[in-house]
Amino acid sequence: MDAAVTEAAPAQSGAPLAQAIVRNVEQVLQGKHQQVEWALAAMVASGHVLLEDVPGLGKTMLARALATSVGLSFKRIQFTADLMPSDIVGGPVYNPKDGSFALRPGPVFAHIVLADEVNRANPRAQSALLECMEEGQVTLDGHSLPLPQPFVVLATQNPMDMAGTFPLPEAQMDRFLIRLSLGYPDFATEAGLIQSQQFAHPIQRLQPVCTPAQFADLAEGARAVIVTPEMAQFMAQIVAATRTHPMLRFGASPRGTLGLARMARALSHVRGQRYVEPAVVREVAPAVLAHRVVLAQPHVQAHSVQATENVVREILALQRTPR
């Protein structure tokens, strides 16, 4: 037991830094502690985040504040119907002076990339993100170029006004570790926004609270969080249940199982826990699994957020918590 505690010690030591980052981001995004904590945990797990919400709720501010707080580079890509893959990853640029070509890296070469309104781009442009998100590299003119590490994509899509959009295919949805919704602020928080942003936006005063090297250590510490055999079976049972549920046509893949474990370990690490507890698994399972399943009912949209989350919660209610 002593050896296990020693191995898991970094999980506790990283919690003060993680919570300092969360508090720093909350100077910009008030009243959204859970979403900020989950987004940070996804970054710690080297996972990508899909933010699905109406405009104006702070999705861009969340990405910028996270990047600023950990001292990482940030780029924003506005996805539109005429966006080309080269607008994302870059490509060769002709120099008329000497007739040569030089590779121009695209905006995807940053630690944190905001893919704004990702479902408004055509499938060809959307697919340009696949290699970046899965492999952490870009192939340009036959050359494989590594992306900065850590590399996290925060993609947004608007559930309203779906005209002129291209829904993300299941294969690309599966690349996102979690799907989040910020939601509207409560009355007190929204009234406070008027005062806090009366003369300047808080993002302009935000300062880093750690270095990229410290954040790398934080991410490395998450690997020391222990998943017991009983917890591994618990997570596998949850995912397996999505494949047999009558309301689902397709359940989550093994990537979903591994994603659930990664997110649970990262969130446990952010909170200073040495072991993954069942409560953490139950907490993050809807955010990790709901976008990875497909509903069986033809009259329900395949990516209905509320419907799929309800199915996952129903599955969780039927699972026995390991002792």
Low-confidence stretches: 1-11
Q: How far from one another are the termini?
A: 18 Å
Give the strand tally.
11
Class derived from helix and strand content: alpha/beta
Beta content comes to: 15-25%
Q: Given the C-alpha coordinates, what overall shape results?
A: globular
Give the SSE string: HHHEHEHEEEHEEEHEHHHEHHEH
Domain ATPase AAA-3: 48-178
Organism: Comamonas aquatica
Protein name: Recombination factor protein RarA
GO molecular function: ATP binding; ATP hydrolysis activity
Could you characterize what this model shows?
With 323 residues, the protein is of the alpha/beta class. It has helices at residues 2-13, 15-25, 33-44, 59-69, 85-89, 123-135, 170-173, 187-196, 212-221, 229-242, 254-270, 278-289, 305-318, and strands spanning 48-52, 74-78, 90-95, 100-105, 112-116, 137-140, 143-146, 152-157, 176-180, 248-250, 294-295. The strands form 4 sheets. It has a 5-stranded parallel sheet with strand order 2-5-8-1-9. The chain is globular and about 70 Å long. The model is unreliable at 1-11 (pLDDT under 50).
Give a brief description:
The chain is of the alpha/beta class.
Characteristics of this structure?
323 residues, alpha/beta, five-stranded parallel sheet, two-stranded antiparallel sheet, 11 strands, disordered N terminus
Helix-strand blueprint:
Blueprint: H1 2-13, H2 15-25, H3 33-44, E1 48-52, H4 59-69, E2 74-78, H5 85-89, E3 90-95, E4 100-105, E5 112-116, H6 123-135, E6 137-140, E7 143-146, E8 152-157, H7 170-173, E9 176-180, H8 187-196, H9 212-221, H10 229-242, E10 248-250, H11 254-270, H12 278-289, E11 294-295, H13 305-318
Parallel strand pairs: 1-8, 1-9, 2-5, 5-8
Antiparallel strand pairs: 3-4, 6-7, 10-11
